[in-house]
Specification:
MacB-like_ATP-bd; six-stranded mixed β-sheet; nucleotide-binding; ATP hydrolysis activity; 231 residues; four-stranded antiparallel β-sheet; transport; binds adenosine-5'-diphosphate; 10 strands; alpha/beta; single chain; transmembrane transporter activity; 27% strand
């Protein structure tokens, strides 16, 4: 990931909001980064840009070798489906699809994966989050922690270059939060690149590197000297 001089301005009701101001950021394959900062500082905006859900008003963004400037909506979606896995605070599972179907769904939007390959990718992902025994269950039959593990499986199933997590433990009690956080640790140890927005300083320390945003600017970008041991 390479962001150079990224700006994002929102225009609404004659009001200009400079959500991001000259953001420069490089994320190397295999890094685990946390993004912190007060409410309204630009964390979600940054995650939306990284995930190609929205476009910058200035600057350059390169993702896994793709220069993302000037792409059509369809081109962005194609790159997003292949390169990005999302984990949301609210899980965002589809309630009338089974666990396996939820995980399979994003893969069906890709034209480079056969049905047979899809099945084995779903099985691999279920195994990584230890939810094989729940493949045919529905989200309502699972605890919040289990739902988030399924959401993580959905995010990793397509072997994305980058996993984007937005407050992944925000809706979980401390026990389930710990399970999801150690799952992210495991994925990181297996080589995943993770970028996680969090309010929780303890969670932030699980990452190797912390970025702090204030008023649309990166004000801290540091390697965490003590990771995990504290958390
Ligand atoms: P955070 O995730 O850190 O709470 P956001 O990225 O959501 O912050 O918001 C950054 C700033 O951009 C805030 O001032 C917010 O009000 C503004 N903003 C975010 N999205 C929009 C939008 N769609 N339209 C107008 N302003 C927005
Ligand atoms: P919030 O705390 O953000 O209001 P909710 O608890 O209302 O979140 O729902 C969080 C998300 O999880 C929603 O997107 C909802 O569709 C999904 N969700 C909640 N419960 C279930 C369920 N039983 N089955 C499937 N999806 C669910």
């Amino acid at each position: 990931v390479q962001l150079i001089g990224i700006n994002k301005v929102f225009y609404a009701d004659d009001l200009e909001t400079h959500a991001l101001n000259d953001v420069n950021l490089q994320i190397t394959k295999g890094e685990y980064i946390s993004i912190t900062g007060p409410s309204g500082c630009g964390k979600s905006t940054l995650l939306s840009l990284l995930g190609l859900l929205d476009t910058a008003t200035g600057g350059e963004y390169t993702l896994a070798g793709h220069n993302t400037h000037g792409l059509s909506r369809e081109e962005r979606a194609a790159i997003r489906n292949k390169e990005i896995g999302f984990v949301f605070q609210a899980f965002n599972l589809i309630s009338d699809l089974s666990v396996a179907e939820n995980i399979e769904l994003p893969l069906t939007y890709r034209n480079d994966i056969s049905k047979a390959l899809r099945q084995s990718m779903v099985e691999d992902a279920l195994q990584k989050v230890d939810m094989q025994h729940r493949a045919n269950h529905y989200p309502s039959q699972l605890s919040g922690g289990q739902q988030q593990r399924v959401a993580v499986a959905r995010a990793i199933a397509g072997n994305p270059s980058l996993i984007l997590a937005d407050e992944p433990t925000g809706n979980l009690d401390s026990k389930n939060a710990a399970v999801v956080m150690s799952l992210l640790d495991q994925l990181h140890q297996q080589g995943a690149t993770i970028c996680m927005v969090t309010h929780d300083p303890k969670s932030a320390l699980r990452a190797q590197r912390t970025i702090e945003i204030f008023d649309g600017k990166i004000v801290v970008d540091q390697i965490n000297e003590v990771t995990q041991a504290i958390a």
